[in-house]
Specification:
This protein is of the alpha+beta class. The chain has two helices and eight strands, in the order H-H-E-E-E-E-E-E-E-E. InterPro entries: FixH (IPR008620).
């Protein structure tokens, strides 16, 4: 009997080599994908005006506090073609125009600002251009009276959204 010589497989046919070479190759490929995304897409979460945002923080707290003092409450109903709002609170005079901001949590280009005009029956009406349902930060402001109420919610068509000062 002759002793059998061990058979050697080439290195590239060894299963362990898939692991040894595969993990770095996957890391290099994924790094290229992430680099491409970083270069081609704009980071809308980063504000261009850090200083202004920091300085205006105190002002924002004051306008929220004013809404709380006035006990501002609103009922908002959004459809695909109309925003209708009923406002209540302790106002000397109800504002003629309100600003409704529907802010997307991550994508700045999907933010929507709607001007709501007061009608004869006291409701406010505007025309938003927004796809529903959608998760948004909802800001209702009166630029002329200097107050704001905020809420974060998933907006469904014809759903009544209750906004109140926090």
């Amino acid at each position: 009997m002759t002793p059998q010589e061990p058979t050697h497989r080439p290195w590239y046919k060894e299963p362990i080599m898939l692991l040894v070479a595969g993990i770095p190759l996957i890391a290099v490929f994924w790094g290229g994908v992430m680099l491409t995304l970083a270069v081609k897409s704009k980071d809308s979460l980063v504000s261009d005006s850090y200083y202004k945002d920091g300085v205006s923080y105190t002002e924002n707290v004051e306008i929220d506090a004013k809404a709380k003092r006035l006990q501002v409450k609103a009922q908002l109903v959004l459809t695909n073609d109309e925003a209708r709002l009923q406002l209540s609170g302790y106002f000397d005079q109800y504002p003629d125009v309100l600003t409704l901001q529907l802010i997307h949590p991550t994508l700045q280009d999907r933010d929507v600002t709607v001007l709501l005009q007061r009608t004869e029956d006291g409701t406010y009406v505007g025309m938003p251009e927004i796809e529903l349902p959608s998760r948004r930060h909802i800001w209702l402001q009166s630029p002329e009276q200097g107050w704001r109420v905020r809420l974060t919610d998933t907006i469904q068509p014809d759903q009544v959204i209750q906004l109140s000062a926090q």
